[in-house]
Design a protein that fits this description.
The protein has one domain: 3-Layer(aba) Sandwich (Rossmann fold). About 45% of the residues lie in helices and about 15% in strands. α2 crosses α4 and α7 packs across α8. β3 and β4 form a beta hairpin. It has a five-stranded parallel beta sheet with strand order 2-6-1-7-8. The longest helix has 17 residues. By secondary structure, the protein is an alpha/beta fold. The protein binds 2'-deoxycytidine-5'-monophosphate. The site of 2'-deoxycytidine-5'-monophosphate has 14 residues, from α2, α4 and α8.
Length: about 220
């Protein structure tokens, strides 16, 4: 029997990726964190296309997209991101990447470049994909769609703790500002903005912990 395709969209730091990962392991699905792809492109841009005013030289990036080979490799059922054969899964979590990623993600050429990679991963079914436009643009025919949200203060707290656990020094105000700015750019961009799909179930997990959120999502998924 074909396994389902599940789309999880929502705001930054609502726990989309860690929740999707846990659901994937419970249901025997592949998990793809599509934000990592945008972060991978940003990593490349910061290394090769940063001008001396510390801005991304966008024509440089767009002219070099074909040199970017992003690949998820399955390591112990975890998809690890490689850029041109280098494991960049730790580097893409750095605050500098978070600072620039929304500017990169609003470029239509970048979104186009990543679209087929994401769609083809779902061809066989059996995948849970998390991002911002999965239910609306990437996989509009997904079997299940969820849209995660939570208050900005709760999301700041979670993101701050996550960075601390990764050994990345920052302060709460900077984390909050980055979340608010990213939400705004992601929601207001013209190409595939962050938006709830008409048929997505909204999950507000301000008051729910990770396990409760997972249980709530699983309660919508029929056995297969
Ligand atoms: O989920 P994340 O914070 O790692 O995502 C990083 C950025 O990538 C986010 O600010 C918006 C962008 N993104 C996107 O535009 N579309 C997706 N499907 C996933 C992420």
């Amino acid at each position: 029997m074909r396994k389902p395709v599940i789309a999880i969209d929502g705001y930054s730091s609502t726990g989309k990726s860690s929740i999707s990962k846990a659901i994937a392991s419970k249901l025997g699905l592949i998990h793809m964190d599509t934000g990592a792809l945008y972060r991978g492109i940003t990593y490349f841009a910061l290394r090769h296309c940063l001008n001396n005013r510390k801005e991304i030289d966008m024509p440089c990036l767009l002219n070099n997209l074909e040199k970017i080979q992003l690949e998820f490799r399955n390591e112990d059922n975890d998809l690890i991101l490689y850029l041109n054969d280098k494991n960049i899964s730790a580097e893409i979590r750095e605050p500098q990447i978070s600072e620039y990623v929304s500017i990169i993600a609003r470029q239509p050429e970048v979104r186009d470049f990543l679209l087929e990679k994401q769609r083809s991963a779902a061809d066989e079914g059996g995948i849970i994909m998390d991002g911002r436009d999965i239910g609306t643009v990437v996989l509009p025919a997904a079997d299940y769609k969820f849209f995660l949200t939570a208050s900005v203060d709760e999301r700041t707290k979670r993101r701050y703790l996550e960075l601390k656990q990764l050994g990345i020094q920052t302060d709460k105000l900077a984390v909050k500002q980055n979340l608010v700015v990213r939400d705004k750019i992601d929601s207001e961009r013209e190409t595939s903005p962050l938006m709830k799909a008409a048929d997505a179930v909204v999950i507000d997990n301000t008051e729910l912990n990770k396990e409760e959120t997972i249980a709530l999502i699983l309660s919508y998924i029929k056995h297969f």
